[in-house]
Amino acid sequence: MTISEFIQDKIKSARIMVVGCGALGNEVLKHLVLSGVSHIVVVDFDVVEADNLAHSILFTPDDALQGRRKVYAVAERLHTLNSAVRVTPIFGDVAYNVGLGIFREMDVVIGCVDNRWARYCINRLCMRAGIPWVDGGIDGLEGTVRVFRPGENCYACNLGPEGLRDLAYRMPCAGTIRRNIEAGKAPTTSITASVIGAVQVQEAFKLLHPEALAEGRLTSLTGSMFCYEGQHLTTRLVAFKGYDDDCPVHEQWTPVEQVPVTTAWTTADTLAWMKSHAQSDEVSIQLVDDCFVDYVVRRSNDSKTTVMQAGRAVADVVAQDAQLAGIPFSEFYQHEFREINQTFPYQQLTLGALGIPQREVLPVTTGIKTYYFELSAA
To answer: What phi and psi, each to the nearest 5 degrees, are found at residue 155?
Structure first.
């Protein structure tokens, strides 16, 4: 293999996940399919809008008119480009709707997201699954690419205290694009996305060739950040490496055991099966990334609203409640469950109702041992 070539069989058999179907995701997906990748998982929770058409090659005016979900639109277009490609679309948020079991099947993940929280969640899942991921970001005529590999480089370790505080701040590029168009400026998003997306795919393909990387015939961006500046056409590499051995984010969950339990099982049936399997009278499912909320209480009085939703949905439920809408969310207290055991009062709720996605890996403790159980698909 020369330094400019990749082994086609490795590319064809690769299992690659792309998170984000915006301008950058469109370019990454296009390059993957045209290069011969035959198994792609696509994750996005958004729908196609008219503003997307100027910088996203895989969307059509009909997609925007119908408000079609981006993952289904790109899956159809990719199949048109290459009928042999197998695209698995997942409509949802990578933070909550994609089970770790799906990540465990991937060879590499490519992140095409526009905020720190999404990157943090991708990093957390990839580290737990023990797989590398390639991050990309664009802004006008500027863009960056980074590679994170378990044991070498961790996104969370690179954030620092200020970055960790700002995790939940979403800063999508759609508003910036719309303002530039209204100001009469020519859109540059598709140009930068094409450059950065190509570099991301190139780095992903390198990760499929560990022997060449080990022998120095290929060099990965792991530990460095590629910076592209198109206004004056400059590129540079800067050091971007952090890996704290005590960081809980890149703790690998192993060994993982696949079990017959699905998200359609009730909590009671699930706990009973786990007790029998672990041969223990005490088992507890740990909700390490989220919580289950059964009600919220306004701090000024004792009235309560039962929401019966996972914690991430509470804000949405409150906003839709006629009595609670418009009240600042900071005025509420939410009653949380961060572990599910025999004392959990809603034993007939299914795991899906608790907000647990299909193929999730559940940490289950018995007091003397921790199991990692991967749920089956429903």
So the answer is: -60, -45
CA 323 – CA 363 distance, rounded (Å) = 37
Q: CB atoms < 10 A from the CB of 9, how many?
A: 9
> What does the pLDDT look like over 290-314, one tens digit per residue?
888 887 777 776 665 655 455 556 6
Whole-angstrom distance, CA of residue 77 vs CA of residue 30:
9
**118, 43 Cβ separation under 8 angstroms:** no
Distance CA 265, CA 323 (A): 33
Q: How confident is the model at residue 148 (pLDDT cuts 50, 70, 90)?
A: very high
Q: Are 20 and 112 in contact (CB under 8 A)?
A: yes
Which of these, 24, 27, 31, 29, lies nearest to 40 by C-alpha position? Answer: 29
Between CA 75 and CA 80, with CA 79 as vertex, the angle to 5 degrees is 120
Helix-helix angle 155-165:116-129, to 10 degrees? 150
Three-state DSSP class for 74? Answer: helix
pLDDT digits (tens, 9 = 90+) for 347-377: 999 999 898 999 999 999 998 999 999 999 9
Q: Give the Cα separation of 66 and 32 in Å (integer).
A: 27
Burial class (CB in 10 A: 0-12, 13-18, 19+), 288: middle
Q: What whole-number distance in Å separates Cα of residue 361 and Cα of residue 210?
A: 27
Joined together, the tokens standing for residue 36 give: 């011969």
Indicate the pTM of the whole model.
0.90
The bridge status of strand 224-229 relative to strand 142-148 is antiparallel
